[in-house]
Specification:
By secondary structure, this protein is an alpha/beta fold. 26% of the residues lie in helices and 20% in strands. Strands 1, 2, 3, 4, 5, 6, 7 and 8 form an 8-stranded mixed sheet that branches.
Length: 174
């Protein structure tokens, strides 16, 4: 089983002229809205990840491009983020080793689970090696991984057997 590596996020996923947040698009495509949660130390990885997800046909919300959050206190920012998560169809946690140190990520994850539902909340492990080990409560959620069968097919798998293995593109559209 392989996970998304930073080297997988090729330059082709990043084009500066394209908007990142759904709110900045001039049209509303009939796609799902994804709330992307991440640790701010991983901000440099967010743009390529967003482009990678957008290449699969979804709109992605990221907080640092939300003008409504500029200059807000933690309380006001929390209200805005709660609304953005509630408005999303799916929730993806960009899972790096930095997220364990975050105060916001667990809160956002809980809201995503509550608003979007367990089956609509997954982790995207991002590594430099393609392997991932984790021993914390984040492991209760599904995760994205790449097939080992020699072709580039991404899947979502859940740790409990109540939800079967699903292609990432199918999960994003469901």
């Amino acid at each position: 089983m392989a996970y998304l590596k930073t080297s997988d996020l090729r330059e082709t996923y990043f084009q500066k002229a394209q908007p990142l947040n759904e709110s900045s698009l001039g049209f509303r495509a009939p796609t799902k809205r994804i709330f992307l949660s991440y640790k701010h130390e991983d901000k440099d990885k967010v743009v390529p990840v967003v482009k990678w997800l957008q290449s699969k046909g979804v709109n992605v919300y990221i907080d640092y491009l939300d003008n409504e959050l500029i200059g807000k206190s933690d309380v006001d920012a929390a209200k805005i983020l709660r609304t953005r998560i509630q408005q999303s169809d799916k929730f993806i946690l960009l899972s790096t080793h930095n997220v364990r140190e975050s105060k916001w990520v667990p809160w956002e994850l809980g809201l995503g689970d509550g608003f979007d539902g367990y089956k609509n909340v997954i982790r995207l492990p991002l590594t430099t090696t393609g392997t991932w080990t984790s021993k914390d409560y984040y492991d209760i959620y599904g995760y994205i991984y790449k097939s080992d069968l020699g072709y580039e097919q991404w899947y979502v798998e859940y740790p409990d057997s109540n939800y079967s293995l699903i292609k990432l593109e199918d999960w994003l559209k469901s």
